[in-house]
Amino acid sequence: MIIHPFPPLFDKESKILILGSFPSVKSREQLFFYGHPQNRFWKVLGGVFGEETPKSIEEKKAFLHRNNIALWDVIASCEIEGSADSTIKNAKANNILPILQGSQVDRIFTNGMTAKKLYDRYILPQVKVEAAVLPSTSPANAAWNVERLIEAWGIIKNTDEL
């Protein structure tokens, strides 16, 4: 059983919550979100907001705060082989209520379908807030190039589209 090794990132100004499934091996080593260099998360967010791709953890934190984005994962602990979401077993969910109560989050997105399925199964019954699924930024989602991802993820900026 592997326990999620780092806390959520949010503040009282956060308006958008993006949930992944569970941190990759690289993210667990770095103790921060989307740490694998092949994951396109940071490049996509930079593209959506018209900013340089943040590199260091401090730059990433500043980027998230500046753009009112909260980050967390659906799963608090699970059995997993390497970083493959497809191998997740015996999952226990994180409690996102402290994020919802301590921020202005009014929109929740999942990074990929696995996170959405886990959210719908474990978290939706407690919080009663639907999450919109975005295409995964994982390199395993090879059907989506960075340009397509940036276009799809642009919805996080547009409140009118929800």
Structural class, from helix and strand content?
A: alpha/beta
Oligomeric organization of the protein chains:
single chain
The first-to-last residue Cα distance is 37 Å
Query: How much β-strand is present in the residues?
Result: 15-25%
Radius of gyration: 14 Å
Describe it.
The protein has 162 residues and is an alpha/beta fold. The protein has a single domain, classed as Uracil-DNA Glycosylase, subunit E. 33% of the residues lie in helices and 19% in strands. It is built from six helices and seven strands. The protein has helices at residues 25-30, 41-49, 57-66, 97-101, 113-127, 146-153, and strands at 2-3, 16-20, 69-73, 75-79, 89-93, 107-111, 131-134. The chain has a four-stranded parallel β-sheet with strand order 3-2-6-7. Strands 1-4-5 form a three-stranded antiparallel β-sheet, with helices on one face. Helix 5 links the parallel strand 6 (107-111) and strand 7 (131-134). Helix 2 crosses helix 6 (146-153). It is globular and about 40 Å long. 34% of the residues are buried. The mean pLDDT is 93.
How do the helices and strands line up, and which of them pair or pack?
Blueprint: E1 2-3, E2 16-20, H1 25-30, H2 41-49, H3 57-66, E3 69-73, E4 75-79, E5 89-93, H4 97-101, E6 107-111, H5 113-127, E7 131-134, H6 146-153
Parallel strand pairs: 2-3, 2-6, 6-7
Antiparallel strand pairs: 1-4, 4-5
Helix pairs in contact: 2-6
Essential attributes:
alpha/beta; four-stranded parallel sheet; 7 strands; globular; three-stranded antiparallel sheet; 162 residues; single chain; 6 helices; Uracil-DNA Glycosylase, subunit E
